[in-house]
Amino acid sequence: MPQSPFNHQDNFTTNLTSNIAIGATSGSLNLLPTVAAPFWIVYDALNENGKYEVVYVTSKGVSSVNHAATTYAHTTSETVRLVAPSRELDLMLSAPQGMMRNGKIVPTVSSNGITLSLKTLNGNDPSLTDPIIARIGDVNRVVVAPLSVSIAQGTTNPMNLGGLELTGKETDLFAYLGYNVTDGVVIGFARFGSATQYGDFNATATNEKYAKISTITNAASTDPYECIGRFAATVTFSTPNYNWSVPTYSQLNLIQKPTTETRWLDYTPIISVSGGTAPTYTATFINKYKILSDTIDIRLQWTNSSGGTAGAGAAALVSTLPFSVLSTYLAANRSPLGGAVWVYEAAGTGAVSQPTNGSAANNAIFSFNLTSATGADQSSGDRAMVGSMRYQI
Question: Is the pLDDT of residue 377 over 90?
Fold first, then answer.
């Protein structure tokens, strides 16, 4: 919890040395607090005259305090005390957007299905006596009942995590809290962390931008959502099921604060050459990606010194991607992606290519001006493709 901007003194009590009128901006006290201003005092603390009033003290004099104008007149018979008023408590409990007070996310797996729960810092379900406060949009919301969301084992290819590129690969998932006036606070998770409203998610369960949310009965596209953390999980396809698992958690793979960035993660691209032969790479076949808000960085290192399967064919060499390119880029094929890839073949022959979007949202080709790297461009035993890509998701 943040430090208060106001000072306090336990068990301080005194009274006025002389009466003050309505609108007074100072009061002489028998005893001054030892702490420096600013602080809050209450006149008529025991309600002796029915004029209980909290005022904000801006400075101290030799025997007086200076404060905001009083609403009531006060007398020497009244008790004066230092207090922490409701306004100060409200400021203390208010959280930055997406942050929680007394809350954390807890991912678990049971029967090969995954559950994401919201728990108090003591590991309990939130309740009236142990609530969680979260700022969703510009409003502090209070959670006083258990809140969780689950995906069962048999769910088909959830978020496209069970496809050939990602099955069995650990991924980072982003936890969200959302709100609408009918459903109240809801919890969910997705593969990307940049959503700010319900309409940023896709409603199809196999889509990469799908979010599994606890309740969407009354969801509207403008409902506010906040990313509250990130956790690691793995989906492995084993016919006919998509099985969830989670690692032992640490500060690296379980993040208890808003974030829009994953770790560097692994994927396995599917390489193809229409009507030809896709090359394989036996020396190194490294493929990494990192999601940063609404963009993705990809690093690839494919090398082969001998053996493996040589590429063949005049058609473009196509590689699938771990996350589809934003659809607005697909008005025409060959939309350029950021980065460059070195296409090398035997005896130092090579050239830098521009990664471009292929014929589908989830693949890339490697262009030299108006032509593309082909299967035949990777036909030698000594071959490599090394580089990076970046694009909006």
Answer: yes
Phi and psi dihedrals of 277, rounded to 5?
-125, 130
Q: Among 393, 388, 46, which Cα is nearest to 202's?
A: 393
Smallest Cα–Cα separation from 14: which of 50, 38, 41? 41
Q: Distances in Å between the alpha carbon of 380 and those of 119, 273, 308, 375?
A: 57, 16, 10, 10
Residue 373 phi, psi dihedral angles, 5° rounding: -60, 135
Query: Which residue ranges make up each domain of the chain?
Result: 13-92, 100-260, 266-392
Give the pair of three-digit tokens for residue 98.
């997406």
Strands lying side by side in the sheet with 132-136: 100-101, 132-136, 139-143
Q: Is 195 in contact with 178 (CB distance < 8 Å)?
A: no
Task: Indicate the pTM of the whole model.
Answer: 0.82
Torsion, CA 168, CA 169, CA 175, CA 181, rounded to 10: -50
Q: Could you give the CA distance from residue 354 to residue 372 in angstroms, rounded to a whole number?
A: 9
CA distance linking residue 363 with residue 351, whole number of Å: 21
Q: How is 288-333 classified by DSSP, letter by letter?
A: EEEEETTEEEEEEEEEESS-S---B-SSBEEEE-SSPPPGGGTTSS
Q: Helix, strand, or coil here: 83?
A: strand
Q: What is the CA radius of gyration of the chain?
A: 31
Over the stretch 282-298, which tens digit does the pLDDT of each residue have? 999 999 999 999 999 99
pLDDT digits (tens, 9 = 90+) for 7-62: 999 999 999 999 999 999 999 999 999 999 999 999 999 999 999 999 999 999 99
pLDDT at 359 over 90: no
Q: Which two tokens stand for residue 182?
A: 């009918």
Element (H, E) at 206: none
Dist CA 372 CA 365 (whole Å): 7
- Pair of tokens at residue 360: 């589908």
- List, in order, residues 6 or more apart from 332 with CB less than 8 Å away: none
Measured CA to CA, the distance from residue 257 to residue 227 in angstroms comes to 8
What's the one-letter identity of residue 293?
S
**3-class secondary structure, 200:** helix
